[in-house]
Amino acid sequence: xxxxxxxxxxxxxxxxxxxxxxxxxxxxxxxxxxxxxxxxxxxxxxxxxxxxxxxxxxxxxxxxxxxxxxxxxxxxxxxxxxxxxxxxxxxxxxxxxxxxxxxxxxxxxxxxxxxxxxxxxxxxxxxxxxxxxxxxxxxxxxxxxxxxxxxxxxxxxxxxxxxxxxxxxxxxxxxxxxxxxxxxxxxxxxxxxxxxxxxxxxxxxxxxxxxxxxxxxxxx
Length: 220
Description:
- The chain has 220 residues and is mainly beta.
- The protein is built from two helices and 16 strands.
- The strands form three sheets. Strands 6, 7, 8, 9, 13, 14, 15 and 16 form an eight-stranded mixed β-sheet that branches.
- The longest helix has 8 residues, at 118-125.
- The radius of gyration is 20 Å and the shape is globular.
- The N and C termini lie far apart (46 Å).
């Protein structure tokens, strides 16, 4: 029972862009001309005989960055949730994702649950300071110092402060929803490491459970 759409100059035929075999769930979308580029849009999730429509979702058309689907119990209620990670933009030193968590209710109904914005968490919980010699990242009184000179960056290219937001990723690891936010101090070659945020389900939304900074030398 393949879903079909009307084809015109700006929209292509609907196609499968992701699936979860265990959940017997299939994600469909169409390519459509956007303001700056073509995007996947008009998302539909088929699951348990139901079709759930998500008209505002956007994903890039590069197949290397197609939606990532997870089926995992991330709120510890004994039932698995459907988690869909979309990539909205990417570049040489950029990757922007957003996450959608769908709780399964009775008779195949799905309810999307709010996930606290990782950038808001970083702005609230991470303190930084930069000089020509070092960058300092502080989280919950844990201080990490990075020698800027070791990065080989021209001093004139160093930002006034640590910049976050060029890398924002989501993953599900060991039944935990995680956000990964990159930290950099220069337009090129200034990557310092990653902020890792682990979420927990509380007050009917996914909120921060733990946050930490992983310097670049521990990621390599």
